[in-house]
């Protein structure tokens, strides 16, 4: 438990940022799951639309500092590779 005024404020800030980060990560994971479902279903046009949305969400999550920018780039690249592989196979 924080005893100093500054430590109490830091604790409040940490809790707020933790909730914000959790919200951003949850949103990102949900859109990735949605993309995975579209790829498994084999619907290329839906997968392309969801990929565009997922790219935006992942980039925003990185810009807010919730995940590292290289982590975001890696996720986007892997998702794009999966969608492209699916569309060329179809």
Q: Topology of this structure?
A:
Blueprint: H1 5-41, H2 44-63, H3 69-89
Structure write-up:
The chain is elongated and about 65 Å long. The chain has one domain: Ribosomal protein S20 (Methane Monooxygenase Hydroxylase, Chain G, domain 1). The protein is mainly α and 90 residues long. The protein contains three helices and no strands. The chain has helices spanning 5-41, 44-63, 69-89. Helix 1 packs antiparallel against helix 2 and helix 2 (44-63) packs antiparallel against helix 3 (69-89). The protein starts with a helix and ends with a helix. The model has no long low-confidence stretch (mean pLDDT 95).
Let me know the number of strands.
0
CATH architectural designation: Up-down Bundle
The portion of residues forming beta strands comes to under 5%
- Report the average pLDDT across residues: 95
Write the H/E string, N to C: HHH
As for the CATH topology, it is Methane Monooxygenase Hydroxylase, Chain G, domain 1
Low-confidence stretches: none
Structural class: mainly alpha
The CATH homologous superfamily is called Ribosomal protein S20
CA radius of gyration? 18 Å
Helix content: over 70%
- What is the count of DSSP helices, taking H or I runs of 4+ residues? 3
């Amino acid at each position: 438990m924080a005893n100093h005024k500054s430590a109490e404020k830091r604790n409040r800030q940490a809790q707020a940022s933790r909730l914000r980060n959790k919200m951003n990560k949850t949103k990102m994971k949900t859109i990735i799951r949605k993309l995975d479902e579209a790829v498994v279903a084999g619907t290329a046009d839906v997968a392309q639309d969801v990929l565009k949305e997922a790219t935006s969400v992942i980039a925003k999550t990185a810009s807010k500092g919730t995940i590292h920018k290289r982590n975001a780039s890696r996720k986007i690249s892997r998702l794009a590779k999966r969608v492209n592989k699916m569309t060329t196979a179809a």
